[in-house]
Write a structure and sequence with these properties.
Distance between the termini: 32 Å
Largest sheet: 5 strands, mixed
Shape: flat
Number of strands: 12
Structural class: alpha/beta
Number of helices: 10
Strand order of the largest sheet: 4-3-5-12-6
Length: 281
Amino acid sequence: MKALDLDVLTMLVAVADTSSFSRAAQVVHRSQSAVSMQIKALELALGKPLFVRARSVAPTQDGEVLLGFARRMLALRDEAWAAVVRPDVTGRVVIGVPDDYASSLLPAILKKFSATYPKVEIQVIGLPSVALAPMVRDGSVDLVCATRVKGLSGEFIRHEPMVWAAAPSADGIWRERPLPIAVFLPGSVARENAIRSLERAKITYRTSYESPSLLGLLSMVEAGLAVAPLARCAVPPHFTLLGQAQGLPEIAALEVILARSAASRRPPCDFLAEQIVSELR
């Protein structure tokens, strides 16, 4: 029973949610070896494997059973904390975030925040970083977790690496010239960084698909019609990551920041901002 430590269960859930020991390590702020060791120790204590370790990590049937209990135990811990610490925090927080971060960086943080502060209403606005900049200035949003762009400044959180993503069955599409790429609309730093890297490497390209939506780019890549320059955190686990080994140039990393409007100086926004910086940094 001692093996069911809440910290170990947190690692268990992180591995299941990210389908990766390395990504789980980033979520729980531990080394990959530490996460692997703790999960292995738990498996030895239970006498059963909890994950199938392949190209992407997936829970076994026993792992799924334990995950259900782990999520309930962790949620109960968060509720207990919220009941005693800061139980009177109420209000509403509007946060803006681009698609690629909304799908990867924020879900676990917002879920944890909601469990800790159940009386705080959260509204998420998904827009490109460049579109969120004026919304910070006019107070339409309280917080913005986005890529640093012209007109949008804030507290530095981290550098997010960029990669070239392709479908597993893309059959060497990255060798085509001009290179077919799926990119965000003009104004996107990810797009600008990728095109700049191709031009420096003297690789001809064609924009086969443009969209403000991450889902649109992923659909084109999944169909094997293009490669996409994406923040590494936004790439689905089953996609193929490409780089210099495939003849594609390195792309400059994105600078992730947290921006705040003048109207955000109130407790709910302070606590969410604090949690975002702490979890992502």
